[in-house]
Design brief:
By secondary structure, the protein is α/β, with parallel strands linked by helices. The protein has one domain: Rossmann fold. The chain has 7 helices and 11 strands. The strands form 2 sheets. Strands 3, 4, 5, 6, 7, 8, 9, 10 and 11 form a 9-stranded mixed β-sheet that branches. Strand 3, helix 2 and strand 4 form a beta-alpha-beta unit.
Length: about 250
């Protein structure tokens, strides 16, 4: 396994079908939002869909969806070359280079490998912050991952409208304070919001994430799932979070 690693990198076991991923703390490592989004998607798709993950980073969502679904194909689209190279090594580490394709490209001009009306499912854990908002990180990779510098919500919706099959599904995780803008833009691009689930750090705090499902050319009709609570009052994970991570709750 050491042959797969470069300076500063480590291998993390995902606790799912023996899958592993290469991470580097100097870049943008995956967090709970990617895990929750993959869980949210896997509960709602059936059959063997063709899936594409936008802004795939080091490939965490393609790996988790491979372990949780029976997808016919999974593609990760990522613009940053260092992350693409690392993601491809993670796929090789898991012997999944044929099953999961990592493409370097810009969602605004994805290239001829990605064809219109090709995908059943588009997934994205996009940058949460507007380009002009918040403190920028000194590391360009982290700044791109956190701020809408190279990829905005509207870019994702333009891509999804063009690349999704009719009635195909778009799944996002984002901040609740951006939800009004997201719903308005989704309807503008003919993607109807069908399901929401809010994620709360604890029962006494405001939601800090929202999981979103939309459908291309879908009919109006929005449902909300029961809230997902991350921590109990004593600071331990709730049982649902242990279940999502596939971990056993300590006795």
């Amino acid at each position: 396994m050491d042959n797969f690693l470069k300076k500063g990198e480590r291998i993390e076991d995902l606790g799912l079908n023996n899958l592993k991923i290469i991470q580097n703390p100097e870049f943008f490592c995956f967090g709970m939002d990617a895990v929750l989004l993959s869980w949210f998607v896997s509960r709602r798709i059936k059959g063997s869909p063709h899936i594409i993950d936008l802004g795939s980073g080091t490939g965490i969502i393609p790996l988790l969806l491979y372990g949780k679904t029976r997808a016919a194909s999974i593609t990760g689209l990522e613009i940053q070359e260092p992350l693409v190279e690392m993601a491809r090594r993670s796929m090789a580490l898991n012997d999944l280079s044929e099953q999961i394709q990592i493409i370097q490209g810009d969602i605004k001009a994805p290239g001829d490998k990605i064809l219109p009306n090709m995908y059943d499912v588009v997934v994205s854990n996009p940058p949460y912050m507007r380009a002009k908002d918040g403190l920028k990180n000194n590391c360009e990779t982290k700044t791109i991952s956190r701020h809408e510098i190279l990829c905005s919500i509207e870019d994702i919706l333009v891509f999804s409208k063009r690349m999704l099959k009719d009635r195909g599904r778009l799944f996002l995780v984002h901040r609740p304070e951006r939800l009004g803008d997201i719903i308005s833009l989704m309807r503008l691009y003919k993607i109807e919001v069908k399901q929401l689930q809010f994620v709360y750090p604890s029962i006494k705090k405001e939601a800090n994430l929202v999981l979103i499902e939309g459908r291309k050319s879908g009919k109006p009709g929005l449902k909300t799932d029961a809230p997902l609570i991350v921590y109990q009052q004593d600071g331990a994970y709730t049982q649902e979070i242990y279940d999502i991570y596939g971990m056993k709750k300590p006795e």
